[in-house]
Specification:
Number of domains: 3
Distance between the termini: 35 Å
Largest sheet: 5 strands, antiparallel
Helix content: 25-40%
Number of helices: 9
Oligomer: single chain
Shape: globular
CATH topology of the largest domain: Jelly Rolls
Radius of gyration: 21 Å
């Protein structure tokens, strides 16, 4: 299990006591930094661009339960499950039964959905937004193992062979998920051969992706891994509309820190490689966003 320092002592990678930056209050006195203080604090946090999981406020997430209410129609009650691949051919009655057992919850960007310090055997079905699954080493470095996109599942569910181990799950955007317990997964999902087969297919693809990343980490250079990651994220996006301004070029909404964690390198190295690709016209960089200008050349750079 990843170490989690107590609140009174700084975690790995954080500033030593007495040396952390302080935000000035209205009275001119310095006050400790806290993620929940204000939007201004988020713009220039003391922890840097990507607060570690043990940063203040990261353990006080307040997710919101969405209650459809007794007078909501069937479409509203099954909204979370609509268009999710594993439920694509279920009847309205079947969808309603699953929706009743899988309440919707919303999390804001940056909130933690799952952490090793608070383990729970639940299955998340992602409806909206993106979720980053990552782990933290003893010295504070983060490695992203997956970016979960809408329509798929993740979480700790032994029945499905789905494990989080020592991973964290963090909302990259404002996300909406459905949450199912072990009992409901066994009763509603595994007893239906259609759903069980699709879950097996999803887990099989995820395993293949991890094997490919392991191979890339051994045989490819850092620059090639970053290009491969960009190419993979681009291919996973839905087609963009040509009528939307800038829609001709796919965009990836990740920071350099997040992309580095996904490619298995440092933020500094990732930034250097990205700037080189930008200088050669492969990509365009903006704050928290990377636009792919030349997909073919990026594939060549991936090796």
């Amino acid at each position: 299990m990843s170490p989690e320092p107590p609140a009174s002592t700084p975690g790995p990678g954080s500033p030593p006591l007495g040396a952390a930056p302080r935000r000035m209050g209205d009275d001119g006195n310095a006050v400790p930094y806290c993620l929940a203080d204000s939007a201004d604090a988020l713009a220039s946090p003391a922890w840097g661009a990507a607060p570690p999981p043990w940063a203040p406020g990261r353990r006080e997430e307040t997710h919101t339960m969405i209650d459809a209410g007794s007078d909501a129609d069937a479409a509203e009650r099954t909204w979370c499950l609509a268009e999710v691949d594993i439920f694509c051919d279920l009847s309205e009655k079947e969808m309603a039964g699953i929706a009743e057992a899988a309440p919707m919850k919303t999390y804001h960007a940056g909130e933690i959905l799952y952490s090793p310090s608070q383990p729970s055997e639940v299955l998340f079905i992602l409806k909206k937004g993106r979720v980053r699954v990552f782990r933290v080493s003893a010295d504070g470095r983060a490695l992203t193992t997956a970016i979960i996109t809408p329509g798929t599942i993740f979480g700790e569910m032994v029945l499905l062979g789905q494990h989080m181990y020592d991973n964290y799950a963090e909302a990259l955007d404002d996300v909406t998920v459905c949450v199912m317990s072990r009992t409901d997964v066994n009763r509603l999902l595994l007893t239906d051969a259609r759903i069980a087969a699709r879950i097996t297919e999803i887990l099989g693809r995820r395993l293949a992706d991890l094997e490919q990343r392991l191979s890339d980490s051994v045989f490819k250079t850092v620059a090639q891994r970053i290009a491969t990651t960009l190419d993979t994220l681009t291919a996973a996006q839905p087609p963009t509309s040509p009528l939307r301004p800038g829609g001709r070029h796919p965009q990836i909404a990740l920071t350099h820190e997040q992309l580095a964690a996904l490619a298995g390198t440092s933020r500094e190295t990732c930034t250097k490689v990205l700037r080189d690709y930008a200088d050669h016209g492969l990509i365009r960089l903006a704050r928290g966003r990377i636009t792919v200008l030349d997909s073919d050349r990026l594939k060549d750079a991936a090796g």
